[in-house]
Amino acid sequence: MSARQAASSGSDSDPRYANVDERKRKRMISNRESARRSRMRKQKQLEGLVNEVSKLQNENNQLMQGINVGRQRLMAMESANNVLRAQAVELTERLRSLNSVLQIVEDVSGLSMEIPEIPDPLLKPWQLPCSVMPIMASADMFQY
Q: What are the protein's UniProt keywords (predicted)?
């Protein structure tokens, strides 16, 4: 018999070795239980992180949709603004033309006519040519 076998066979009858084996067995059980609890904690932590990733991805998608809606609204407003600027330039040119006709009529007829100065709305947008009419905003301008 080898020394190892002799020691193991002797441990069955020797109470000293039985006590050591019992401690080893309890430690092994305790270690297994601790490892199981650790795996469960890690699994719960992983599930929490997966849920958080999912939540953040949903939030990110919602933000991207909001950004896209905002971009579309911005493009629509810029387009409408460009149309209004073009109309303002056209109307300013028409007013200048009419004022030049009035100037010719004044020169030919000798009648004194009041010809107002035409402000340039593109250079000074805060000076409105028609200050009599207030600008009204409607609630539907701000709907999505």
A: DNA-binding, Nucleus, Transcription, Transcription regulation
89 φ, ψ (degrees, to nearest 5):
-65, -45
Overall pTM surpassing 0.90 (yes/no):
no
Residues 77, 62: Cα–Cα separation, whole Å: 22
Q: How far apart are CA 56 and CA 116, in angstroms?
A: 61
Residue 119 burial (C-beta neighbours within 10 Å; 0-12, 13-18, 19+): middle
Residue burial 39-69, b: 16+ Cβ < 10 Å; e: rest: eeeeeeeeeeeeeeeeeeeeeeeeeeeeeee
- Alpha-carbon Rg for the chain in angstroms: 45
Place of tokens 């107002």: 116
Q: Convert the pLDDT of each residue in 61-112 to its tens digit.
A: 999 999 999 999 999 999 999 999 889 888 888 888 888 888 888 888 888 7
